[in-house]
Amino acid sequence: MQQNVLRLQDEKPQSLCQYSGKVVVVVNTASFCGFTPQYKGLEELYAKYKDRGLVVLGFPSNDFSQETGSNKEIADFCESTFGVKFPMFTKTTVSGKDASPLFKQLADKTGTTPRWNFYKYVIARDGVNATSFNSLAGPTSRQFVQEIEKQLASQ
Asked: What does 85-137 look like in DSSP terms, one character per residue?
């Protein structure tokens, strides 16, 4: 989490350290994917648990050729279509040799890289332990929610 990334709405640098001590869900997103409706569930999850220490961080990616817009277009789409309020960052490479440092670290920790859009990682409050969930595990799936609740319960 000791990295700086650019915020989607204005491309201003943000330190991920500001989320230290929180349970963090990192998700690679895309506007033109069959899983795009997961934005709604992610926003609901964020709204439900943010006061308990959860933050959802969205990273749009064109790695799977389903995020072709500019950062401004992506921000407008997320806000107007799904009412996304959780932090979103600029378009990011999430797999392969050019993956961002964050996604490289998550791949090292979990042994898996995103194979498609809306791949999710849950990072424990300690910032060290992480669990991955594939795209089919939606934001309301039992296993995903149980992992978040387990991490939120641990201090």
From this structure: -S-BBS----SSTT--HHHHHHHHHHS---SSTT-EEEE-TTSS-EEEE-TTS
